Amino acid sequence: MADNGMDRRDFMKSTAAGFGGFFFLSSNEIKPEETTKKPLKEQKIIYRTLGKTGIKLPAINMGVMNSSNPNLVRAALNSGMVLLDTATTYQRGTNEAMIGEVIKERPRDSYVIATKAHPPENRSTGLYTKEATEEDYQKKIDASLKNLGLDYIDIYHHHGASVRESVLYEPVMKALEKAKKAGKIRFIGISTHKNEPEVIQAAVDSKFYDVILTTYNFKQKHQVEIRETIAKAAAAGMGVIVMKAMGGVQLQERAEKPVEPVPALKWVLQDSNVHTIIAGFTTFDQMNLDLSVMENPTLTQSEKAHLQWAAFQTGLYCQGCGQCLMQCPEELPIPDLMRAYMYVYGYRNLSHSQDLLLSLNLPPRVCGDCAECPVKCSIGFNVSRKIQDVIRLRDVPAEFIA
Ligand code: SF4
Ligand code: SF4
Hints:
This protein is of the alpha/beta class.
């Protein structure tokens, strides 16, 4: 089966509301922004406030997941970025400590740190396992504090929730609540890159979380539902941070024409309920390009045309719709496997991909017992081909992977 994606009619059906209303806001619908010129590079910075936390952040910040380069983090902060987003597991668990080395040189009020930990989970159901205890989660928070060399963390995200039950999982909530009361964390967040509307709605209903961190981009079939729940979260006073904002960018294996990152970022910033984007750049040029979005965040006609073209490219971005899960007799966590594939071919982050693969408790033989794969992906991914490709990484010795 070719990776030919959904057809045009399906796409228009799935994003009809987006193209008809939200997808491109006219310039007079976009709220005026608070801006400043930074003396260092004369970079124009647009600030938005992260909900009731009151934290003022640039519209573009750094998601540090794909970078192990402290000089890139320094450059991000020197360029006016403030929020650094990391996790206990990024860069094989070294990302927090690398950031800790950078921030120890700086005043505590000059940066905002968000980190996160994911409780042990059954990847097929999204429910947590018995190992996901309050004590285990407390240990993760304490380990983050130690790695970062901080007395407190600004935002700690309950990471990667994908179903309502997980959002409301008491042992994790209790650990976070106690850490907040003890002054170890200022604000409690929740992150999701799958089944986002359900997760965000549950977070709003809980009245427990201060911040959400969600996938949101121009390629998502369910972008309208995400937009609506983001609006509810913002109305409830929650801070809204977006990741994977460039869902179609750098995410094509053999693209003749690459998808441009700037329009993709601008598309997200059209939504005034989004308070900031964490961009996962890995080079200084990419960083400067991402920052340039704030010079003029309004989409031009050619950028709109580009996005309309790009929205039809299948790329490497799995929608996380879960439609494949019931079709696989082996109950493989296919969305996670597609994410591992994207980390290799999109982000070139082999170690993160391998870590994800090893966390999935996959059988020794993957896809080996099926004469033919019956899975029909909603966007046309040839899932068995991608799985068989990426699964090879599982057996590569870690020391061979930079
Ligand atoms: S692999 Fe396809 S069907 Fe499965 S979650 Fe991703 S987009 Fe949906
Ligand atoms: S080939 Fe792989 S993905 Fe397809 S049904 Fe078999 S085990 Fe599942």
